[in-house]
TrEMBL record:
InterPro entries: ADH-like_C, ADH-like_N, ADH_Zn_CS, ER, GroES-like_sf, NAD(P)-bd_dom_sf. This is alcohol dehydrogenase. One of its GO terms (molecular function) is zinc ion binding. It comes from the Eukaryota. It is an enzyme of class 1 (oxidoreductase). It comes from Eremothecium gossypii (strain ATCC 10895 / CBS 109.51 / FGSC 9923 / NRRL Y-1056). It catalyses: a primary alcohol + NAD(+) = an aldehyde + NADH + H(+). Its EC number is 1.1.1.1.
Amino acid sequence: MLRLLNPRSTQTVSRATRLVIRLSSTAIPTTQKAVVFYEHGGELKYTDIPVPKPKPNEILVNIKYSGVCHTDLHAWKGDWAIKPKLPLVGGHEGAGVVVAKGANVTNFEIGDYAGVKWLGKTCMECEFCQKGFEPNCETPTLSGYTHDGTFQQYATADAIHAAHIPPGTDLAKVAPILCAGITVYKALKTAALIPGQWVAISGAGGGLGSLAVQYAVAMGYRVVGIDGGNEKEALFRSLGGETFVDFHKNKDIVSAVREATGGGPHGVVNVSVSTNAILQSVEYVRPTGTVVLVGLPPDATVKSDVLTHVLKSINIKGSYVGNRADTKEAIEFFTRGLVQSPIKIIGLSQLEEAYKAMEEGTSIGRYVVDTSR
């Protein structure tokens, strides 16, 4: 039960306490605005749906902003082998305020800032969870895929896996960190580089890539970005990237990247959804280097000539999303001002605009939806 301060007390009321009081006095509505689809590739319906009720181990978050991820596009299209539930409220980069919690929740209070992320829940008991490989749990709950996500004004989340966001954080800008930021940060850790080494970001001007560039710079790496167009190059350079290879202007990407990095990057993070880009990365990576696969183009394969693979002693690794520790670390980079989210804010009712831009490859940075409109 929430205890309010005596209004006649002379005790100083903190900003956080005033927020709790304000939230406690605001009734949670029974219905809310959301974007729902009932069939793959069907109408993205901006409509009214019931506000969910948190289970004993869940929190209810009033989502203020939600990032839009390529995974949301795949969920809508249904073009992955593992299909999402239908009907579905997508979204898994939700940042907001806790307005209710289940009876068993002890790590969040009403009024706290919280993030709802892709990895919504895991068993915490299997071999992988116990070793910190929570994303590899065989029975996960995935926000915006197997569980209604953040393209709604109120969303539930398992309290153990929900992200803690420091008070006063810009919720619009932190939203993309909850998936894109965590994902690329984990991929860079998977590349196992040391400061001063080269890392190539394939898809450097997109939502994932623009964050990967910043994390890489903050971690002390030299960054070569691969993407197409003057706008994306300008964004890349503004984020601290060192060398840009434009696939519109360079017919031989492999040679261009090798030349730019003096023999090839020590690591590659593939966040683009181009199969050809993935194949090229195996060719231009430096001997003993590591290629990290993150982007998921449908039906894509990665091929590496065995003789060359062995002689170059290269590594090819997959990187999914981060665990709870990775989440905390990725958010800390943001709150310390080392990483910013290049975002474009649109209304929740305009979600289709973001999907169209992603399909056409014209999105620069990350779309974020404001759930209030």
